[in-house]
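Please fill in the sequence for the structure shown.

STRUCTURE ENCODING:
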């Protein structure tokens, strides 16, 4: 199962996470948070863990966007459960001093090497994380790093609606190629 962990304000209908769920409802699932407007790490990762108990984790690829990536990393740090892989897209730099104060508890971002396959996808023009910080995260986590040129925050308003390249990276994670 491919499990989406959206970021702040959830992913709207034109976002690649929502499109994938609509196109492939038997293989994509979204973890729904109680409060999308004020993400709280402990609340979010508790919900993630509760939802993941329904699945065979050896078959799960988590797909995070923005602060959803920080939620995945913090979930693993707390619970230590291994999954098949993770696609971490446009990870938020929750340690940035200018990070929104209404997004709480995700800092400091754990930087331990992950024991499962992972890919970090980042843009050279993201307002939420610099390309250097995203590369640093990938290096620390032992993730493959993919750079997208001038892709904004890698969301629908930046032209990433039906994002087939992302599906290819999920397939590669599953096949053990990344």
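FILLED IN BY: designer on duty
SEQUENCE:
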């Amino acid at each position: 199962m491919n499990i989406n962990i959206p970021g702040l304000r959830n992913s709207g209908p034109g976002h690649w996470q929502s499109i994938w769920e609509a196109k492939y409802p038997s293989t994509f699932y979204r973890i729904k948070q109680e409060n999308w407007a004020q993400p709280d790490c402990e609340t979010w990762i508790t919900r993630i863990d509760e939802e993941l108990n329904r699945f065979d984790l050896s078959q799960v690829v988590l797909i995070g966007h923005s602060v959803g990536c920080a939620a995945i990393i913090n979930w693993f740090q707390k619970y230590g459960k291994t999954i098949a892989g993770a696609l971490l897209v446009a990870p938020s730099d929750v340690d940035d001093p200018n990070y929104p104060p209404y997004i709480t508890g995700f800092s400091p971002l754990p930087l331990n090497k992950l024991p499962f396959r992972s890919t970090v996808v980042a843009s050279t023009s993201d307002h939420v994380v610099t390309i250097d910080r995203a590369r640093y995260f990938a290096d620390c986590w032992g993730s493959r790093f993919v750079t997208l040129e001038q892709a904004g925050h890698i969301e629908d308003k930046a032209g990433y609606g039906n994002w087939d390249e992302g599906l290819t990276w999920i397939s590669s994670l599953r096949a053990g190629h990344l």
